Amino acid sequence: MKKGFVLIVFLLAVITSAYGQKAKYVFYFIGDGMGVNQVQLAEFYRAAVENRLGVEPLGFTGFPVATMATHYSASGDVTDSAASGTALATGNKTKNGRIGLDLEGKKSFTTIAEMAKRCGKKVGVLSTVPVNHATPAAFYGHQLSREMGYELAQDMLKADFDFYGGSELMYEDKYPADTENGSIRDRFRAQGYLICDYEGFRRGYADADKVLMLPGEEEAVTYAIDTENDAPENAGRHLTLTQMVESAVTFLMKDNKKGFFLMAEGGKIDGACHGHDAATAINEVIDFDNAISLACDFAEKHPGQTLIVVTADHETGGLVLNPDNAATLALLRHQKHYQGTISDMLRKRVAAGRMSWEDMKDFLGENFGFWKEFDLPWKYERILRDSYEHTIARADVGSAKDLYDINAEIVAKAVYVLNEMAGVHWCCSHSAGYTPVYAKGAGQELFTHKTDNAEIPMLISKAAGYR
C-alpha cells in the first residue's frame, strides 16, 4: 500500500511538471498565406518526387497538437496581413491595413512581444520579407497603415527589441532626411544595434548589445527555389530564414536567465501564392519547415521549457488540389525559379535581341521542362504560342512597357500551364479558408480546440505566464 501511494505521488509530480511548467522559451512561427492546402500540397509533392502516392510529412505537421483557426478581420471575412498580424500579435481584431491600433486608430494594443519584454524576456522578430512589413510590424508597431514604413521603422526603435531580421527596411530609400539624427540606420547604430548580415553576425555578435540582421550589399533574401537553383558561384549570397532563426537563438541565449520570445515569419509563401506559383510555394513551405526544425532541436535540449507554435495569418490564392497521380504532381520539380526571377531572365534575353518561337521554346524548356523533360499537349502549347505572338513576336525591345507585358503574360502563362498539368488550381488572392495551428511543448494542451487567430497570442501568453 505504501509503495502504491509513493508511485501515485511520483506520477502526479511528473504530470504536474509536464503540464504545469511555464514556457521559458517561445517560438512563434507564422507562414504568411499558408492555408491547410499549402501544407498538404508540400506534403503531397514530397511524396510525389519519390514516385509514390500519399504524403511525406513535414516536421511541424508531426507536432502532438494540430487544429485550425479562423482569421476574419474587423472589416471583412477576408483579412489582410496587417489585421491578421495584429490579431496574432495582440489578441484584438482591427480593420484591414491597420497595425496594432483599434478600428478608430486611437487605441494602441499591447503585443505579446511587448508583454514578453516587460516580463524580462529577450525578444526577436524575423521575416523573409521586410522586417517592417505588415506581419512582423504587428509585433511592435502601432500605425494607421501598413504602408507607413518609416513610422514602423521608428516603432522598431521604440520597442527596442533585442533582435530584428528581415530582407530589408521597407521603402528605406523614401524615408525623410533627418539632419540631426542621421539616417534610420544611423539611429539604429546610435541605439546600440549591430547592423549585419549573417557572416557579420558571426564575427560580431559576442560584443553586440542588439542586432538588426539584413542582407549585405551583394546578398538578398531570395525565394527558396531561387536559392536552391542558383549558380554555384553565388553560394553564400542568400540570407535565409534558417540562418536568421539560428542567429537569433544564438543571440537571445547570450547571458540569458529569463528566456525569450521569438516570432519568425515565412513571408514569401504569400508572394508565391499571390502569383499562383505552386512550385515556388512548395519550396517556401519546405524552407519554412527547415527553420522550424531548428526550434525543435532547441526544444530537445530544453525539454519542458520550450513552446513552439506554428500557424498562418491567412490563406492566399484559394488553392485547390486535384492531381491525377504522383507523376503529374512531380512535374512541378522541373520549374527552376520563382516566376518573377524567370521574367527578369526573359526581359534580359529579349533586350539582347529578338527571340524566335524556337528560341522561346528552348527558354521555356530550360525553366519549366516543357518539351525537354516531358511532352506538352497541343492545347497547352497553343496557350504559350499565342502568348508569344501577342508579346515577344511584336515586342519593341527598347520599350519598357513591352518588356513588362512579357513579364505579365508569357511567364505567368507558363506557370499556369505547369500548374494545370500538375493538377494544382487557384481562384483568387486572399481567401477565408481555415489556417492550420500546430503546437508542441510546454502549454501545448491549451491549443487542442478549433480557435481564432485572436485567441492564439492569449494562449501563448497563458502558457508562458506573460502579464
Structure description:
With 467 residues, the protein is α/β, with parallel strands linked by helices. The protein is built from 18 helices and 14 strands. The protein has helices at residues 2-20, 36-48, 81-90, 112-118, 134-137, 149-159, 184-190, 198-204, 224-229, 241-252, 268-274, 278-301, 326-329, 339-351, 357-368, 378-390, 400-422, 456-464; strands spanning 25-31, 65-70, 122-127, 163-165, 193-196, 210-213, 260-266, 306-311, 315-316, 320-321, 424-425, 430-431, 435-441, 451-452. It has a ten-stranded mixed beta sheet with strand order 5-6-4-3-7-1-8-13-2-14, with helices on both faces. Strands 9-12 form a two-stranded antiparallel sheet. A two-stranded antiparallel sheet has the order 10-11. Strand 5 (193-196), helix 8 and strand 6 (210-213) form a beta-alpha-beta unit. Helix 2 (36-48) crosses helix 12, helix 11 (268-274) packs antiparallel against helix 12 (278-301) and helix 14 packs across helix 17 (400-422). The longest helix is centred in the middle third of the chain and has 24 residues, at 278-301. It is globular, with a radius of gyration of 24 Å. It starts with a helix and ends with a helix. The model is unreliable at 1-19 (pLDDT under 50).
Task: Provide tags for this entry.
10-stranded mixed sheet, single chain, 18 helices, alpha/beta, 467 residues, disordered N terminus
Q: Which structural class best describes the helix and strand composition?
A: alpha/beta
What are the low-pLDDT stretches, counting only 5+ consecutive residues below 50? 1-19
- Quick one: biggest sheet? 10 strands, mixed
Q: What sort of overall outline do the alpha carbons produce when their principal axes are compared?
A: globular
First and last CA, distance? 43 Å
User: How do the strands line up in the largest sheet?
Assistant: 5-6-4-3-7-1-8-13-2-14
